[in-house]
């Protein structure tokens, strides 16, 4: 069963209110269905009867970006003032070239979506979202610079230009993005994301979250499942042993360590120096 039950498409309002959860006026959802950013995006599209363009977090969700905040409201661009709870309506003028069709809905292009994320969120949050957007699409960081140049007279273009150089599609989680930014701002060389390590014969050894191949130093970010899942713990241990046999130094970073950034920087800097780096 499709989770959406728009009241204006055949369900009496009282019946809809009794059996379903209301998302927007005239749009209801099965109470058992999770309300994800993508679900909110489609609900907003239905509420507007398609007379809108999905933007920001909603557009990113439609493009397949992961790790988006579940509590974020749906975002649309419309040509009128709208006051609907749980919906943010922007009165943006979006050029047709920056609009595309996806999943049967009109959304901002990946590049335009990145621009909106950059100008409407704090820098680190924006980079986390844009990293995920780039990973889900074919959007390249260089395209963000091109868009910033094309929109140079538009408020927010300078923000996009400043953030473009920090974007990396290799990040596999917001935590990895935050960790990468922490090390960059500490003055450490830029790491390679998702680096594949091979032996002298080209055989696969392992893939690291962040790496400095020149010095054979790697960082592995390990969330809680790395410790609670026995199979994951086994794979981590075996990969770590293979990396060490190949002459790599591995710094393991856990979620609690993220509360002590100075400690992380100290550990990584020490590993790089021991390997002949900075």
What does this entry look like structurally?
- This is DUF559 domain-containing protein.
- Helix content is 41%, strand content 19%.
- It folds into 2 domains: 34-164, no CATH class; 174-274, Endonuclease, Chain A, CATH 3.40.960.10.
- β6 and β7 form a beta hairpin.
- The chain has 11 helices and 11 strands.
- The chain has 278 residues and is of the alpha+beta class.
- The longest helix is centred in the last third of the chain and has 16 residues, at 230-245.
- The termini are far apart.
- It is globular.
- α6 runs antiparallel to α7.
The proportion of residues in beta strands is: 15-25%
What overall form do the CA principal axes indicate? globular
Low-confidence region ranges: none
Please give the radius of gyration in angstroms.
22 Å
* Mean of pLDDT: 90
Strand order of the largest sheet: 8-9-10-11
| Distance separating the two termini | 58 Å
Please write the string of helix (H) and strand (E) elements: HEEHEHEEEEHHHHHEEEHHEH
Helix content: 40-55%
Largest sheet: 4 strands, mixed
Helix segment count? Answer: 11
- Count of distinct structural domains: 2
The number of distinct β-strands equals: 11
Give the class from helix and strand content and strand pairing: alpha+beta
Protein name: DUF559 domain-containing protein
Organism: Lolliginicoccus lacisalsi
């Amino acid at each position: 069963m499709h989770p959406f039950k728009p009241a204006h498409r055949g369900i009496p309002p009282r019946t809809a209110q009794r059996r379903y959860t209301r998302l927007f006026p005239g749009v209801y959802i099965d109470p058992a269905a999770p309300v994800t950013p993508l679900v909110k995006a489609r609900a907003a599209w239905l509420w507007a009867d398609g007379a809108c363009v999905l933007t920001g977090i909603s557009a990113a969700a439609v493009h397949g970006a992961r790790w988006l905040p579940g509590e974020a409201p749906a975002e649309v661009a419309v040509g009128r003032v709208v006051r609907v709870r749980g919906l943010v309506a922007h009165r943006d003028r979006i050029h047709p070239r920056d609009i595309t069709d996806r999943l049967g809905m009109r959304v901002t292009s990946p590049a335009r979506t990145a621009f909106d994320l950059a100008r409407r969120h704090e820098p680190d949050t924006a980079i986390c979202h844009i990293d995920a957007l780039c990973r889900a699409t074919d959007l390249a960081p260089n395209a963000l610079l091109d868009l910033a140049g094309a929109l140079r007279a538009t408020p927010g273009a300078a923000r996009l230009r400043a953030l473009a150089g920090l974007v990396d599609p290799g990040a596999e989680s917001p935590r990895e993005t935050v960790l990468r930014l922490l090390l960059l701002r500490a003055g450490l060389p830029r790491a390679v994301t998702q680096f594949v390590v091979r032996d002298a014969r080209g055989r696969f050894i392992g893939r690291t979250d962040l790496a400095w191949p020149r010095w054979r130093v790697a960082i592995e970010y390990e969330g809680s499942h790395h410790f609670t899942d026995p199979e994951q713990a086994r794979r981590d241990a075996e990969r770590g042993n293979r990396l060490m046999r190949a002459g790599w130094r591995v710094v393991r970073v856990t979620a609690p360590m993220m509360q002590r950034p100075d400690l992380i920087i100290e550990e990584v800097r020490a590993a790089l120096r021991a390997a002949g780096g900075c």
